[in-house]
Amino acid sequence: MPITSSAEKARRVSLRKRVFNVRRGDAMTTMLKSVKKLVAEGKKQEAEALLGEAYQAIDKAAKRGVINKGAAARKKSRLVALIRRGK
Q1: pLDDT at residue number 83
Q2: pTM, whole model, 2 decimals?
Q3: Containing domain of residue 70, as a range?
Q4: From the CA atom positions of the chain, what is the Rg in Å?
Q5: How confident is the model at residue 87 (pLDDT cuts 50, 70, 90)?
Q6: Comparing 29 with 87, which gets the higher pLDDT?
Q7: Domain containing 23 — which CATH number?
Q8: Is 60 in contact with 76 (CB distance < 8 Å)?
Q9: Residue 17 has what pLDDT?
Q10: CA distance 39 to 23
């Protein structure tokens, strides 16, 4: 438990920010799963249509610091490779 008032405030702020970060991470994960599911079902056109939204979710997560910049680039690269393979 925080002892000083500044530590209490820092805890409140971090809990508030955590909500946004978790929401951003969940949105990214949901988009990635939906694209991967479409590719697995053989619906390549629909997966390509969702690719822009997946990129947006990944970029927003990287911008907020939910994931690292390199991790975002890797996720986008692997997503495109997955769609091109069509598996």
Answers
A1: 93
A2: 0.84
A3: 5-85
A4: 17
A5: low
A6: 29
A7: 1.20.58.110
A8: no
A9: 95
A10: 25
